Amino acid sequence: MIETNKAPHLLTEYVLDLLPPSEKQRLAQQIGADPALQAQVQQERQVGQLVKQTVQQAGQADNAQLARLMPAVPRQKRPFWHNPAAQQAMRQVAMVTMMFILLLGGWQWFNGSQTAVLSQTPTAIAVTATMTHTPTATQTQPAVVETAVAREFTHTPNVSYTPAPLSTPVADVPMNTN
Amino acid sequence: MSSISDSSVTPWGIEAPTYADEQSQSLIQRCLAGEESAYVALYNQYAGMIYRLCVSLLQNREDAEEVLQDSFEYAFRRLAQYDANKSAFKTWLYQIAVSRCHNKRRRKWLPTFSLGQLAGPELTDTDSPTPAESLRLTEQQQAVWAAIQNLSDKLRETAVLRYYEGFSYVEIGQIVGIPTKTAESRMRLAHNALREALAEQIEND
What we know:
The complex is a heterodimer. Chain A has helices spanning 7-15, 21-33, 35-58, 63-68, 84-111, 114-119, 122-152. Helix content of chain A is 66%, strand content 0%. Chain A is mostly helical. Chain A is elongated and about 150 Å long. In chain A, helix 1 (7-15) crosses helix 3 (35-58) and helix 2 packs across helix 3. By secondary structure, chain B is mainly α. Chain B has ten helices and no strands. Chain B has helices spanning 21-32, 36-58, 61-77, 89-119, 131-134, 139-150, 153-164, 169-176, 180-197, 199-204. In chain B, helix 4 packs across helix 8. Residues 1-20 and 121-129 of chain B have low confidence and may be disordered. Chains A and B meet through helix 1 and helix 3 of A and helix 2, helix 3, helix 6, helix 7 and helix 9 of B.
């Protein structure tokens, strides 16, 4: 049984749903068996019922009044690609990109593989030509000069002759030995 | 939390919150897609409840209307930020409204205090209806209303959220921004204060 001095406190806890489930169940059985406790519980519950009824009445508002108080619906910020002008610009960019890709593809197809296309550009050809001719001309010159020096000292008996170098296949100039 | 769907009846005959959040969620999605009718539906679903809460907490219809508008304007603008995993939509909305009621009370306190000092009792219009009378309450309801208004702000909001809205203590904690145990303790104090103030009404019934 509930102790008399603890009853109001426990009943408040019970009505406010603040008791642990086991204790709540035990108390519910006792209340069910005791009409005096039932009356006390009813009084405790009445507090909440009175508050509910009063708040309901005090805060009554008709639909028209509430509708008048509705704030403006916020404008949704649409993504920029939903803008028709942006869509047109994007279409144009896409078309130009597509044409560029098609042209590049066509160029590659015309010239074979991508490596071949890059190696046969005009710049690559010009560089190759320069590099090929310059060393050939430079190598020819010393062979001729050395031959001439050897011939200047033929009348001096103390000079040991240096054999003339062999002619290079590139500078195939006939040597004058007299 | 938002998945709670079984409605239960509290001892004082209030339906515990049934989170019809699937419906709210669908409305929110439609709102975010820019559908104006969804905003209207969402407002119609909750405006009455929020208005009653504001009237109870602020004791003034004009202030309640202002806070109602302000709360929904804020909620509509921040709808994308609502997280269904954190709380039910109703809890989120009440959180906004309670926070705005706090701000309103804070802003109103200083001018009301100073003007009251200047006016004095002789300038009070005795023919004008009291706030309770203007709310068209019966005599008993006026006594209850007075008892509610005599509670401190903290106890009043806890009592209204529990008795009228049927929120759990966990939800009250979320809405007001206090621990659950504090919400429970405030509810005990509010209940005891109301029971004492309403002893006459309870016995008459």
